[in-house]
Amino acid sequence: QGKQKKARKYAVMKRMISLRDERLKEKDRVKAPVKKKEDPSAIKEREVPQHPSCLFFQYNTQLGPPYHILVDTNFINFSIKAKLDLVQSMMDCLYAKCIPCITDCVMGEIEKLGQKYRVALRIAKDPRFERLPCMHKGTYADDCLVQRVTQHKCYIVATVDKELKRRIRKIPGVPIMYISRHR
């Protein structure tokens, strides 16, 4: 009349001897850890993350009018697609002098993209752009930008990448500049 289904028994597992079992020899047995009594007069230490001194609550005091803007690869590409002059549109956005900064990792990423992105490479080599040397291993630009922004809170990050924006939003006091609706 049909195959009978075997019901699995609930919470079946291999039987193992506990390390505190009486059948084990004395040398194989695990000894119960001895708890030390805490001294109530002793000062309790806790690991508290050090907050940067430049932050006054959520306001970053290191950001000042000659704004230093860290530019990402896709920001340059999107500015080309939107037909925006990068430096001029940054100044229009912030109503102040802007110094676009480009790291070695971002430069390497643009060079790896090849001949198709030669216009982006020419824009990145513009003398108005400030070059920032990288001392770390690897050329992953997103990690480089996040690391630089965590160390020095004096930068605005210009990116269109959703994943990078999500990572930077977790760092307090770092503004993000992006292109939307060709602006």
UniProtKB/TrEMBL annotation:
Keyword rRNA processing: yes
Keyword annotations: Nucleus, Ribosome biogenesis, rRNA processing
CDD domains, sorted: PIN_Fcf1-like
Broad class of where this protein is predominantly found: nucleus
Highest taxon, organism lineage: Eukaryota
Domain spans labelled PIN: 67-166
Family, as annotated: Belongs to the UTP23/FCF1 family. FCF1 subfamily.
Protein name: rRNA-processing protein FCF1 homolog
Protein source organism: Melospiza melodia (Song sparrow)
Lineage of source species: Eukaryota, Metazoa, Chordata, Craniata, Vertebrata
